[in-house]
Amino acid sequence: MLQRKMFWYGGQAVCLAVWIFNIIGLIKPYGNEATRKLWKISMPVWAIIHPVEIPLAYGLAAKGAGVSLKRTVVKTILYGFTWWVPLKMGVLDK
User: Fold this and answer.
1) Which member of 20, 46, 78, 91 has the lowest number of beta carbons within 10 Å of its beta carbon?
2) Domain spans in the chain, listed from the N-terminal domain onward
């Protein structure tokens, strides 16, 4: 399963969906209380975890694969570990 591109692409799609969910919540706060609670948890976690991954992504995967720091930052912010782990494993290309 971890050696399949579609597994990782699915994870990346989920990451983008969560970013969309978080951005919508910033623009127009959710009215439903359960959704608002989910957003209040998701937004800070997402906004902290992805930037914290950047040194790991660059040092463990991207630098060795010849990926620039700028590209590493963008891809890690967007996709998190669903980008750099399969890159390191050789499942996905840069």
Assistant:
1) 20
2) 5-89
